[in-house]
Amino acid sequence: MTDSNAHPDAPQPIDTLVDAWYVVTMNETRDIIHRGSIAIHDGVIVEVGKTADLERRYAPAQRLGGDRFVAAPGMVNTHIHITGEPLTRGYVPDDTPFEENVFVWLTNLYAAYAEGDERCSAQLAATEMLRSGTTTFLEAGTVRLLDEVFDGLAETGIRGRLGAWVWDLPPEPDVYRQTTDEAIARLDDQLTRYRSFAEGRLGAWSTVVGHTTCSDPLWKAARELADTHDVGLSFHMSPAKSDPDGFIAEFGQRPFEHLDEIGVLGDDACATHCVHVDDREIDTMARTGTSVAHCPTTALKVSYGVTQIGKMPEMVQRGVNVSIGTDGNNASNYSDLMRATYLVAGLFKDGRIDPQMFPAEKALEMATLGGARSMTMDDQIGSLEVGKRADVVLHDTDRPEWRPLFNVVNQLVWSADGRGVHTVLVDGRVVVEDGHMTTIDEAALWAEAQQRGGDIVARSGLPDRAKFPVL
Amino acid sequence: MTASGDSPFPELKKTHTMARTGRPYTDYKPPAAAPVWAAIEGYGRFHVLVAALELGAFEALARADRRTGEELASELDVSAPHLTTLLEGVVALGFLEHHHGHFSLNDTAKRYLLVDGPASMVDLVPVSPGPLANWSDLTETVRTGAPPSPIDDDPAAFYRPLVAGTFTTIFRCASRADLKLRYSALPAPLVLDLGAGAAPWSCAILGANPGATAVVNDLDGVVDLAEAKLTEHGLTDRCEIRAGDYLEIDVEDDSYDLVVLGHILRAESGDRARALIDRAARALKPGGRVLIGDYFADRQRALEPHALMMGVTMMASTRHGRVFRYADLATELRDAGFEALRLIEPIGFQMVAVGTLAPGGTTP
After folding, report:
1. Rounded percentage of chain A residues whose pLDDT exceeds 70
2. In terms of domains, do B150 and B259 share one?
3. Is the pTM above the cut of 0.90?
4. Fewer CB atoms inside 10 Å of the end CB: C or N, chain B?
């Protein structure tokens, strides 16, 4: 990058300089830089500071942004089903009880996916995430055809960690039935083949479905494989009372007590939902460093009771890292993490009748730094700091919800949503420009998603339960 | 009101109103006299606190968890019944607990009324109202339009105790302001501290940023207090002292990263205050920030009692001193070329207006 013959005061050539009205750095001191810029070279942030200083020091090959943009770190969605649901978004009625929702509707829709569907589904999910400011995601571990999904995602330019559908206890549906040995082999295979993909932006994780679907040998193997391959481990747990009830009936222990005892938990483990947990389980999470992916939209739509019995404030208070996920498109019909962050800031304010619950600043930390921590990527993403990957989102403030602008973080969390995202960079590469994907043909994707979604619904045999007549 | 126009409180009607007297019902209740009593007691409340501080009562209680009036009087070598009465007054102010004959500090006293308290206001309390004699002349000041003994006639004599007494609080304000301003992260900033007093802002900024340097200004008879504090903080080698009127000393154009106008605008006439803002704008580099510590009235000059009382304090002791509205200051700052205006409150009751000099710099 440096030229030994260059004059010492000559501007240093770099790939990109991103300018903004305000740069929300999320660095250690949470600096917001007025008239700031981000210097990027080789996909890495080389400096963040005042535009006046950086434009003197650097000679960028391209210059992006400008006075009307707010620059923020790409957000991190720590729980999303990128396949199985995006192509049947909204088909499941919103008044089904939890057990019916999962075992009658979701599982059967997932099982109806055919070859090619998951690639299209993953691209649709990635498009929605990128266009709303999410640059990194942790998939829920429910992919069936990993090869086509990795291939489709690589094309979009998004960053993520994902895994195949792994469980060993449920006997159905057939397409997902696995013995313990098969489940472990599937995990081992995905970690061997996809440890790192697309210049490291994509990779496999040690993901299991969780809940009460895994035997102890599978849980232990998932932990061992995570350690062996130096990746994290993620699973669903305790969105509803059925999980603690199942663990207590089987082991006489609550889920996190048992998982701690068999050595599953750790600072690279990310558990999703965690609504029905008790104080001892929270202490266990804090002691082991286990992160939680809080999915507020799912909790609302599937009636988890998160505002009544959820203990996210206590988790944060005791030092548990809580991040945010948007979950699947039938339990939470959008993948815009800004909207989910809005809910995180608001749910417990109302639930506890206490406006000091989850201030906007805390909610934004959860959506960026918290997510990066959950994915054990906090040294690479989550903030705009020197040495981190250049995952940058430019929010366009020439929009009614952005004006007037006084408190940038309040605006990001409470006023704005993903529709205001104008430009997105991942690893310094522009993947969204003027609100549209630069990497894939969006029009073709809309048409393909509609076609494939219709076919999946037809294959599933599940009824259309929309209540209003369609003429 | 009920549909019949009758009282919504029939039980009152039966026993107290026109049911017996024949007079029309009214639910008007006279306002409480409490605000009047609060004003009457104001004079006494101030002196109770000052006396307790001067006697060292809070410090003595800090050394000994809880004490009776007699025990404290013995330690402080004062009259026991008188001290007990005084401390009961402090209990009324809400700074002490009094249980079973024992006095003890409450959290407010521990935080604000101990010399080493985390947010000590001990030095601030006695000097904050200004010269006490001027309050006795307030009626005359209003009649004649000027205080009989304005501090303007001998500013150094007035400002010396004031800046010494306010240092602790303003230093804490200036230190906490870093959380909002991050001056500690600026690369080698040059600070212009006009009317610096004992230089709390320079001490805070230079203390937090090892690369920072400052030009510190105040009047001839005051600036030695700044030098003393800078010496105490080990910062003299990074400061240049420029004594004199802040509108008359030499100041370089387009050179400074921060200009501090700490609690000086309200002591000035409107014209001189505007000239100070223009001077700050010329001195700053584009992107540099002006920090204006003051007490700002609200838009209708009715809703911010602390600022309104500060206006009276200024009137009681100065010829031109006044409290102005943040809205008016913001207009002046914009006219002078500032943008990204913010009003921050680094600590309670201490407001700081912040403006950034726009890239175009000052207007011609």
Report:
1. 99
2. yes
3. no
4. C
